[in-house]
């Protein structure tokens, strides 16, 4: 029985790889295409790691429609004034280009001993530090993994509006950090940044509702359902942390 299950899993993986390889990139940025070879962490609906899967495989709607789910993280970084750092995703991005979103949203990779480690959410915190440096140029010596406070998880699914070939189906781990950092955004990743107050963020969502700007769906979900109590208690977040096995499902 074990051999049969293993064979079925291997067959499913090969079928997903065939689907992924059948898609040609058209007009996309070469650097972003290379990133699609990174190995994300494919999980089940309880966030149990199953196997590695390329970023490309994980973001194809043809695979998502069959239930393929991967682990992600979203960072909300506040400065000492209590303002939230947002970024506008570069137009070179394959999914949701030009959208405003939270500080950093990305994926831990299938890296044993580091980003796969689940104890104390160490893996996603290691990945978050890596991506703060990669996307926003935050010096590594300015942020420690212990600066990130894990808050909760959300499970959501969203096709890309611009290109229905691509989408997101993520088990998203939410991290909050309050720290003053230096920024040097990578143009291939980020086209703009801004710190906002609560009132300014509400104005951004109003503009998004009026179709004047675009906001990523996961950012809107988190902001509307979870962000306010965290923002109000940046100096005392631990009482607001959900158990690691709690998952908020939004579909």
Automatic annotation (TrEMBL):
InterPro entries: IsopentenylPP_isomerase_typ1, NUDIX_hydrolase-like_dom_sf, NUDIX_hydrolase_dom
Pathway(s) the chain acts in: Isoprenoid biosynthesis; dimethylallyl diphosphate biosynthesis; dimethylallyl diphosphate from isopentenyl diphosphate: step 1/1
CDD domains: NUDIX_IPP_Isomerase (cd02885)
MF (Gene Ontology): isopentenyl-diphosphate delta-isomerase activity
The UniProt record lists the keyword Nucleotide-binding: no
GO biological process: dimethylallyl diphosphate biosynthetic process; isopentenyl diphosphate biosynthetic process
SUPFAM superfamilies documented for this protein: Nudix (SSF55811)
Assigned EC number: 5.3.3.2
Family stated for the protein in its record: Belongs to the IPP isomerase type 1 family.
The name this protein goes by in its record: isopentenyl-diphosphate Delta-isomerase
Organism: Tieghemostelium lacteum (Slime mold)
Lineage of source species: Eukaryota, Amoebozoa, Evosea, Eumycetozoa, Dictyostelia
């Amino acid at each position: 029985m074990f051999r049969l299950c293993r064979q079925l899993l291997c067959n499913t993986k090969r079928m997903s790889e065939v689907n992924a390889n059948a898609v040609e990139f058209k007009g996309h940025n070469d650097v972003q295409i290379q990133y699609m070879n990174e190995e994300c962490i494919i999980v089940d609906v309880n966030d149990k790691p199953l196997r590695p899967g390329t970023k490309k495989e994980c973001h194809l709607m043809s695979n998502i429609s069959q239930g393929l789910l991967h682990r992600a993280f979203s960072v909300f970084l506040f400065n000492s004034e209590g303002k939230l750092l947002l970024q506008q995703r570069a137009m070179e991005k394959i999914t949701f280009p030009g959208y405003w979103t939270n500080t950093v949203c990305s994926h831990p990779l299938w890296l044993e001993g580091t980003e796969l480690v689940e104890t104390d959410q160490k893996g996603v915190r290691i990945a978050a530090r890596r991506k703060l440096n990669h996307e926003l140029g935050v010096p590594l010596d300015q942020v420690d993994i212990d600066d990130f406070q894990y808050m909760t998880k959300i499970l959501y699914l969203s096709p890309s509006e611009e290109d229905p070939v691509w989408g997101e189906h993520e088990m998203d781990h939410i991290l909050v950090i309050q720290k003053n950092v230096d920024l040097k955004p990578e143009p291939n990743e980020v086209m703009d940044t801004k710190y906002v107050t609560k009132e300014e963020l509400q104005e951004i969502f109003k503009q998004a509702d009026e179709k004047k700007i675009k906001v990523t769906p996961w950012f809107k979900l988190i902001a509307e359902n979870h962000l306010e109590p965290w923002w109000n208690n940046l100096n005392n977040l631990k009482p607001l942390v959900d158990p690691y096995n709690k998952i908020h499902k939004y579909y």
